[in-house]
Structures are given as structure tokens and as C-alpha cells.
Amino acid sequence: MFKQYSYPLRLVAIAVTLALASPVAAAECYADYKAKKDNPLRLHYGVVALDNGCSMDSARTEISARIAKDGWKLLNVLSVFDETQLSGKEASAGQFYLRY
Fold it and tell me: Where is the signal peptide (predicted)?
């Protein structure tokens, strides 16, 4: 009698296990960078939350695209980090803290 239910129960158990095993949200990833505008020369330091990966290469691509919309050119990505290193950067980044 219970043998007929064993296959569907196994499928349900596997589905529940897979659903619980997948993370609800990936760890937050941030990067800090330096950028410039010409005529007149302006520089800024900023901090961004990254959406498309947590590497220096993906950060360069993502930040360049975001800041270019306002005429900024990325000079360099200083570091990529998680939320534990986010505190203390707001004062340095000022208006460019999580702006882009």
C-alpha cells in the first residue's frame, strides 16, 4: 500500500531539499572606485553596490557603464568587498556613496 506513494514522496522530498538548499539572496557585493570628468577637471571617489558579479573585472564593466550616463570616466576600481567592509566609507564617498 505505501509502496505506491514512495515515488511521489521521493520527488517531493527532493524538490523541498533543492528549494531549501538554494540561497535566498546572494551576499551583497560592493566596490569603491575613482572617476573623473574633463573640462573642467573634476574627480570623485565613490562606492557602488554591484549586481553582476563580485570581481574586479565585472566591477570595472558595471561601474563604467553606470557612471558614463552622467559623463564620468572610470579611472580605477580600488577594491571589491562585502557589506562587512562597507562601514566607514560613507564619509569618504559623500554624495557618491551608493549613488550609482
Answer: 1-26
